[in-house]
Amino acid sequence: MFNAEFVSGMALLGAGIAMIAGLGPGIGQGIAASKGAEAVGRNPEAAGKIRSIMVLGIALAETTGIYSLIIALILIFLKA
Amino acid sequence: MFNAEFVSGMALLGAGIAMIAGLGPGIGQGIAASKGAEAVGRNPEAAGKIRSIMVLGIALAETTGIYSLIIALILIFLKA
Amino acid sequence: MFNAEFVSGMALLGAGIAMIAGLGPGIGQGIAASKGAEAVGRNPEAAGKIRSIMVLGIALAETTGIYSLIIALILIFLKA
Amino acid sequence: MFNAEFVSGMALLGAGIAMIAGLGPGIGQGIAASKGAEAVGRNPEAAGKIRSIMVLGIALAETTGIYSLIIALILIFLKA
Amino acid sequence: MFNAEFVSGMALLGAGIAMIAGLGPGIGQGIAASKGAEAVGRNPEAAGKIRSIMVLGIALAETTGIYSLIIALILIFLKA
Amino acid sequence: MFNAEFVSGMALLGAGIAMIAGLGPGIGQGIAASKGAEAVGRNPEAAGKIRSIMVLGIALAETTGIYSLIIALILIFLKA
Amino acid sequence: MFNAEFVSGMALLGAGIAMIAGLGPGIGQGIAASKGAEAVGRNPEAAGKIRSIMVLGIALAETTGIYSLIIALILIFLKA
Amino acid sequence: MFNAEFVSGMALLGAGIAMIAGLGPGIGQGIAASKGAEAVGRNPEAAGKIRSIMVLGIALAETTGIYSLIIALILIFLKA
Amino acid sequence: MFNAEFVSGMALLGAGIAMIAGLGPGIGQGIAASKGAEAVGRNPEAAGKIRSIMVLGIALAETTGIYSLIIALILIFLKA
Amino acid sequence: MFNAEFVSGMALLGAGIAMIAGLGPGIGQGIAASKGAEAVGRNPEAAGKIRSIMVLGIALAETTGIYSLIIALILIFLKA
Amino acid sequence: MFNAEFVSGMALLGAGIAMIAGLGPGIGQGIAASKGAEAVGRNPEAAGKIRSIMVLGIALAETTGIYSLIIALILIFLKA
Amino acid sequence: MFNAEFVSGMALLGAGIAMIAGLGPGIGQGIAASKGAEAVGRNPEAAGKIRSIMVLGIALAETTGIYSLIIALILIFLKA
Amino acid sequence: MFNAEFVSGMALLGAGIAMIAGLGPGIGQGIAASKGAEAVGRNPEAAGKIRSIMVLGIALAETTGIYSLIIALILIFLKA
Amino acid sequence: MFNAEFVSGMALLGAGIAMIAGLGPGIGQGIAASKGAEAVGRNPEAAGKIRSIMVLGIALAETTGIYSLIIALILIFLKA
């Protein structure tokens, strides 16, 4: 019989699977950081502007990682 | 027997799987941020225009991540 | 015995799997945004035209993500 | 025993799996959009011609995504 | 016991799996569209010739996607 | 017990799996089309020769997709 | 109990799996066709020689796809 | 019967799966470090600025790895 | 109970799996053909020498595909 | 019945899965080391500064590998 | 009960899996052949030396494919 | 029933899975070695400095491989 | 019940899985051979030195393939 | 019931899985050998120094392959 414990188990397993998405922002943000460092190395005077746009882009790329975090927390604390 | 708990379990597992899509926007947006930083480094005068188009592109790329979030929330709160 | 709950469970699991497609547009649109930012950085005067074609392309690339969203919603609300 | 519900369940699961194909056009169309933006940035005078061929190519690339949508709809509404 | 419903279920699942092939033409045709846009941007005078060969190539690349569609339709309507 | 229905089911599932091969020609032919468009853009005078060799290459690349189609049809109509 | 039908089923499933190899030649031959078109575009006078070596290479690359076809046919007609 | 031990087991398995996301930041941050070293090698005078933006980018890319760590710790200590 | 039919089934399934290796030579030989066509396009006078080394390389790359064919044939005719 | 041994088994299996994340930092840090060596080869005078930023970046990229180690140790010693 | 037939079945399945390794040499040797053709096209006078080193390298790359063949033959004839 | 032998079995299986992480450092360190050789070839006078930074980077990249080794040894000797 | 035949079966299956590692050296050595041919084509006078270092590198890259061969042989002859 | 034979079987299966890591060093060392050959071709006078750093790097990259070998041997001889 499938029972409440099965539901809880699936919720916790699903929380773990949801976090896998975090490897996407990790790779993408690292690439952004790499180009940021390269750009500063070429044009140190523009370091302020480069940092500002890089941080903005990375912050926006962070969102899907946060979505996964939210879903995982909901799965763990509300459904398991 | 498959029962209501089985349905709930599948809904929660499906929510976790749906979030995997978030790695796509994460990678793509990071690439966008990297090119944004590079472009600002090359042409700091155009920083405003570059930021505006970069944010526009990233915002549009965010959509499929949000779709996954919506589906996951529906699966969790309406079906499990 | 396979019963109505099995059907519902498969529908909800299928909805989660369908959303995985969203990582494709996410990556592709991010690449489009990256080239848009690069192009504006090289030729700021053409920013309007670049934005217009970039948004057009991204909007068309969005379609398969929307198809997945539609199928997932149908699976969840009509079949589960 | 495999019964009608098993058939319905497989149809709905199959619909979800079929939608995965949507990540292909998503990536491909995004690449097309990226090159469109780049080309307009280099040669803004040709923006009209570039947009026309880009949209044509993207529309043709959309087809396999639509095939998946059709098959998924058939699976859901005629077979489940 | 494996019965007629098992056969139908496998046919519908197989139809879904067959559609995955659609991601190949999707990516390939998108790449073709991207190069078409790039080529028109470089040489707008040749737009007609470029469009003609691009559409020809994309149409031929479409074939395997159509094969999958045909097989999926046969699986769904003749075997399930 | 494994019976005739099991055989039919495996044949139909196998037909679906066989079609996955279609993503290979799809990607490859798209790449060929992309280079064809690029080559015509660079040298429009040679458009006839380029088209002729491109179509020849794409036609030969089509073969493995056709093999899969043949095997799938045999599996469906002769064995299921 | 494993019986003759199990053997037939595995043979048909194996035939489907064997066809997956066809995506390799499909990608490879497409790349060959792309370079053939590019080479003709650069040096139209050598179109005959280019076509001859390209077709030779593609024909040799076809072999593993044919091996899979042969094995699949043997599995289907002699063993299932 | 699914019982409390099943829930605990799924929580611990999910914790392990969640940590897989850590390979994303690992790759991305390594790429960032590689470009940082390259940039310093080209422009040693800007080493301070390059280091500062590189560390900023890497720190932001670290976040999804930390999210996974948090979820894994919660799964282990609160749910298993 | 595992019996002779199980052995035969595994042999036939194994034959199908073994053929997957054929995608390797398919991709590799296609790349070789692509470079052969490119080389002839650049230096048509050396077409004979290029063809001779290309065919030699492709023939050697064929070997692992033939090994798989041999093993599949042995599995099918001697063990199933 | 799922019992304490099942929990222990899942914890140990999860510990093994968690360690897979270690391939990410391994690849990334190797890339960083490769660029470090290249940069020193181009500009040996800056070897000190290059080493310092490379080690800093690699140390930060190490973190997600350490998170996995910590989770694995917790899973093994506290939960199994 | 696991019996001698189970051992034979696993041996034959293992033989099929072992052959998958053959795709590695297939890809690698094809790349070697591609560079061999390119090198001859650039420097036809050195064709003899290029062929000799290319064949040497391909022969050494063949070894792991042969190891797999040997293991598969041992599995089939000594253990199944 | 899950018993102590199940725990031991999972520990040993987990040890094997944990070692997969070793392919990451293997690829990364090889890339580092390739760039080290290239750098020495370009600037033999700096061979000492290049070797010193290359070995430092490779040693740091080794760490996640060692973590996996440690976890595998713990799993084998303390838990199985 | 798990018995001695189960152990033998797992040993033989494990031997097949271990051989998959052989695709790594196959790809890597092929890349080495490709660069060897290219280098000889550019600098035929150094053919002896190039061959000597290429063979040395390929021989060292062979080792992990040999490790897999050894483990597979041990699994087959000592444990099955 | 899980018994000692289950433990042995898992140990042997785990040994096979652990060896998969060997494809990492195989690819990486091959890349190192390719760059070594290229570097010698460009600068034959530095062949000694290039060989010395290449072998050093390859030897360090070998380590994770050896770790896997050690773990596999331990799993086979101490635990199975």
From TrEMBL, chains A, B, C, D, E, F, G, H, I, J, K, L, M, N:
Record's signal peptide: none
Residue ranges of the TM segments: 6-32, 53-78
Localization: Cell membrane; Membrane
Protein topology in the membrane: Multi-pass membrane protein
Domain annotation V-ATPase proteolipid subunit C-like: ranges: 13-75
Main location: membrane
Site entry (Reversibly protonated during proton transport), positions: 62
Pfam families named among the record's database cross-references: ATP-synt_C (PF00137)
Alphabetical UniProt keywords: ATP synthesis, Cell membrane, CF(0), Hydrogen ion transport, Ion transport, Lipid-binding, Membrane, Transmembrane, Transmembrane helix, Transport
CDD domains assigned: ATP-synt_Fo_c_NaATPase (cd18184)
Function: F(1)F(0) ATP synthase produces ATP from ADP in the presence of a proton or sodium gradient. F-type ATPases consist of two structural domains, F(1) containing the extramembraneous catalytic core and F(0) containing the membrane proton channel, linked together by a central stalk and a peripheral stalk. During catalysis, ATP synthesis in the catalytic domain of F(1) is coupled via a rotary mechanism of the central stalk subunits to proton translocation. Key component of the F(0) channel; it plays a direct role in translocation across the membrane. A homomeric c-ring of between 10-14 subunits forms the central stalk rotor element with the F(1) delta and epsilon subunits.
NCBIfam families reported in the protein's UniProt record: ATP_synt_c (TIGR01260)
Protein name as annotated: ATP synthase subunit c
Organism encoding this protein: Massilicoli timonensis
Organism placement in taxonomy: Bacteria, Bacillati, Bacillota, Erysipelotrichia, Erysipelotrichales
